[in-house]
Backbone:
C-alpha cells in the first residue's frame, strides 16, 4: 500500500468531498465538545459553501491531495499571505486512514509547495481539542508562537522556518 500526493484543483469533486469530510469532522468535534450536539445541518451547508478554497489556487496557493492505494484519503493546502509567509490549512486525513503515515507526508509536501511559492516561513493555527494535530506539528519542527490571526476558533498558533530542516525530518516521498 502506498501514499501519493499530488496537486488538485480546489474546485474538483475530490477536493469538495475532502473539504466536506474535514469541515464536518472539525465542526462536529467543536459543537460536541462545547454544546453537546453535532453541527446544525443548515449551518454546515452554509459554511462549506462559503469557504470554496479559491485561495488555494495557483499562483498564490496550492491544494494537495493524498491518495492511499489510489483512493483519496486526505488533503493539505497552502496559501501565500505575503511574499515570505504562507499559511498551512485544511490538513486532513480520513479517520480510517490515520496511523498509516499520510499526515507527515502531506505536511512535508505542503512545505515543499510553500517553498515553491517563494515562502520562507509557514504558519498555521489549530485548536486545543485537536491533540494529534498539535503533536504532529511539534514533531515536524513547528514552534508554538503568539496569536497571528483573529480566528475565533483558533487556540494554538505555530510557525516553521522553511529555510532550515530538522535532522530527524521524514522525507516527503511515498511510504
Residues:
Amino acid at each position: 500500500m502506498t501514499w501519493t500526493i499530488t496537486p488538485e484543483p480546489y474546485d474538483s469533486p475530490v477536493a469538495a468531498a475532502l473539504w466536506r469530510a474535514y469541515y464536518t469532522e472539525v465542526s462536529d468535534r467543536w459543537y460536541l465538545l462545547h454544546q453537546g450536539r453535532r453541527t446544525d445541518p443548515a449551518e454546515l451547508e452554509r459554511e462549506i459553501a462559503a469557504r470554496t478554497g479559491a485561495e488555494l489556487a495557483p499562483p498564490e496557493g496550492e491544494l494537495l491531495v493524498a491518495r492511499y492505494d489510489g483512493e483519496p484519503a486526505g488533503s493539505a493546502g497552502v496559501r501565500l499571505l505575503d511574499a515570505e509567509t504562507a499559511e498551512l490549512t485544511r490538513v486532513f486525513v480520513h479517520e480510517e486512514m490515520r496511523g498509516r503515515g499520510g499526515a507527515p507526508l502531506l505536511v512535508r509536501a505542503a512545505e515543499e509547495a510553500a517553498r515553491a511559492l517563494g515562502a520562507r516561513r509557514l504558519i498555521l493555527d489549530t485548536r486545543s481539542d485537536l491533540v494529534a494535530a498539535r503533536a504532529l506539528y511539534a514533531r515536524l519542527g513547528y514552534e508554538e508562537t503568539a496569536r497571528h490571526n483573529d480566528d475565533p476558533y483558533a487556540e494554538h498558533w505555530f510557525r516553521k522556518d522553511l529555510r532550515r530542516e530538522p535532522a530527524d525530518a521524514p522525507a516527503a516521498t511515498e511510504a
